[in-house]
Amino acid sequence: MGTATESKGYGSAIANEWETPDFLNAQKRLDKVSEILKLDSNTIEPMRHPKRSLSVVVPARMDDGTVRTFAGYRVQHDLALGPGKGGVRYHSDVTLGEVASMAMLMTWKCSLMNLPFGGAHGGIRMAPEKLSKGELERITRRYTSEILELIGPSQDIAGPDLNTDEQTMAWMMDTYSVNKGFTVPSVVTGKPQSIGGSLGVLQSTGYGVALAAKRAAAYAELKGDAPSVVIQGLGNVGSSVARNLAKFGFKIVGVSDAHGGLSNSKGLDVDALMAHIEKTGNMYDFPHADKVTNEELLELECQILAPCAVSNQLHAGNADRIKCQVVVEGANSPTTPNADDVFDSKGIVVVPDILANAAGVTVGYFEWVQGLMRLLWSEEEVYQRLEGLVNNVCTRVFDKARDKKLSLRMAAMSLAVERIVEARKLRGLYP
Questions:
Q1: Angle 71-91-335 (CA atoms, 0-180°, nearest 5)?
Q2: Which CATH architecture has domain 21-184?
């Protein structure tokens, strides 16, 4: 199914603005699941492209008085189930294709979790680590103003993603609210609790990844009372995964951040490691552990590998050397389709991102609901609701995989796409 071919005399098909490797990989997975579901081209073709995309120029004044411009994007992939929902990322490599692929991923993630959202995503191409807090605020506020026509609590709800946080969301909410003339808390999620953020949101994604890993360990029939785990990325998500899996009785044998990692086949003391990082700002002189590179970390022998960093970490170049039994995708799109094929042939179970890390958007939904209804749920209530939803969806995906002899990714994608197809069928094609 090409995107740049002539279409029966009606003119050229959709141009290739989004055709980056990330987006093409997202399309490959959609095409694969469409074959499983036996969907015709009339059904699947509209879902292969974003519904709407906006590219903006974001001018901002720097601390030295100069004005610099940055490329910004907001993409809505599919809105059949409700308003768009997706993060905003700040990174020097952000492209329209990357943002579009993340928007498509959010479509499947929200659908799989039975949330009343479609998929969206946004980003700005910049190096946030080189900018001051004041510069980041001015860039964020101008970006929000530029995408104002697309976002809103009933249109498109933003949330934090790579290199953005609750402060970013606070600036976005305030900018939107100032333009509307009244406070609109539900235009974003992941904001500080003092201005309407939900309790439990900061650790929710990692907690959900840990729950999915626990269920996957039983599904894959891993041996031993303390399955060994390697975690790539020890940021907000990865650290929460480590803490929660340690509480569940799992053995953390390797961790890393952007600069490298540590390993100990007998297990790392997670609480001591986190205390060390908080005190020193790094992990590298932590005792009783061997230093490893990020590449070496991914290839450590373990039962569960949890990539919780950035995309495309497991690929054709290293898939053959991965020595785990289960991959649990804490990050978005850490595994390429080529790596999926290798893992399938090796019998490695992959818990896909749309299931494994969906707790973040789920608690974002809780925050959106609380904002609309002016409610405040306790942290216990948030986590109780979250655990119930994650376990329910895990059961559905695992049962689908067994019954239809599918990988977990294809089982999850099948359930997600089926719901979108049904919604599109019921709503019809207008005009």
A1: 120
A2: 3-Layer(aba) Sandwich (3.40)
What are the boundaries of each domain within the chain?
A: 21-184, 204-351
In angstroms, the CA 104 to CA 86 distance is: 10
Count Cβ atoms within 10 A of the Cβ of residue 121 and give its class: 0-12 exposed, 13-18 middle, 19 or more buried: buried
Tell me if 21-184 shares its fold with 204-351. yes
CATH code: domain 204-351 is 3.40.50.720
Rounded Cα distance, 187 and 169, in Å: 9
How would you write the pLDDT of the chain (431 residues) with one tens digit per residue? 444 434 444 544 445 677 888 899 999 999 999 999 999 999 999 999 999 999 999 999 999 999 999 999 999 999 999 999 999 999 999 999 999 999 999 999 999 999 999 999 999 999 999 999 999 999 999 999 999 999 999 999 999 999 999 999 999 999 999 999 999 999 999 999 999 999 998 889 999 999 999 999 999 999 988 999 999 999 889 999 999 999 999 999 999 988 889 999 999 999 999 999 989 888 888 988 999 999 999 999 999 999 999 889 999 999 999 999 999 999 999 999 999 999 999 999 999 999 999 999 999 999 999 999 999 999 999 999 999 999 999 999 999 999 999 999 999 999 999 999 999 999 998 87
Rounded Cα–Cα distance for residues 381 and 282 (Å)? 34
Rounded Cα–Cα distance for residues 13 and 5 (Å): 6
Cβ atoms 120, 44 nearer than 8 A: no
pTM of the model: 0.92
Instruction: Name the amino acid, one letter, at 395.
Output: T
CB 67 within 8 A of CB 60: yes
Q: Are 69 and 51 in contact (CB under 8 A)?
A: no
Neighbours of 143 (CB within 10 A): 28
- Residues forming a β-bridge with 326: 304, 349
Closest CA to 87 of 172, 164, 197, 23: 164
**For 54-61, which contacts have Cβ atoms below 8 Å and span 24 or more sequence positions?**
54/147, 54/149, 54/150, 55/96, 56/143, 56/146, 56/147, 57/146, 58/124, 58/139, 58/142, 58/143, 58/146, 59/142, 60/135, 60/138, 60/139, 60/142, 61/138
Q: Which single residue is written with the structure tokens 């390697």?
A: 230
Would you state the structure tokens that stand for residue 342, as one six-digit string? 């290798």
